[in-house]
Amino acid sequence: MKILNRIEEAFCGTALLITTIVLFVNVVLRYVFNASTTWAEELIKYLMIWIAFIGGSICVREGAHVSIDFFYEYLSEKGMKVVLIIVNSIAVVFCLLMAIYGMQTIQFTINTGQVSPALQLPMWIPYLAIPLGFILMTIRYAQEIVKTIKK
Question: What is the pLDDT of residues 38-56, one digit of tens each?
């Protein structure tokens, strides 16, 4: 899993760096040279989508997703384990359903042959972030269930 951790972090870091550079160059072109690229906004948008979905997996791993932990104070250790297992199991089911929906969206997009307006990128590539991100989140939530059971 360490390899997966590094791949996720490297991807998000690289995508964020590329986004920052492209945005900076486009701003300089627009305001200094009175010209801009047509593809920069589209590339930035797609990279941010990828960062959000892959970053979601990192957030699950780090325990950084928003949660309400008010009730945990009133539970015993065993009760807290049960609640964590239930919550993470619901998250696994949700993520699996979203991954399936994402795959259906990709199949539809491939069948229609959609391409992006500026980059002429096949639209299944930006949409691929949905199932991939949710599959990674499913793995991370399953890891959390196993970790909770082992405690």
Answer: 899 999 999 999 999 999 9
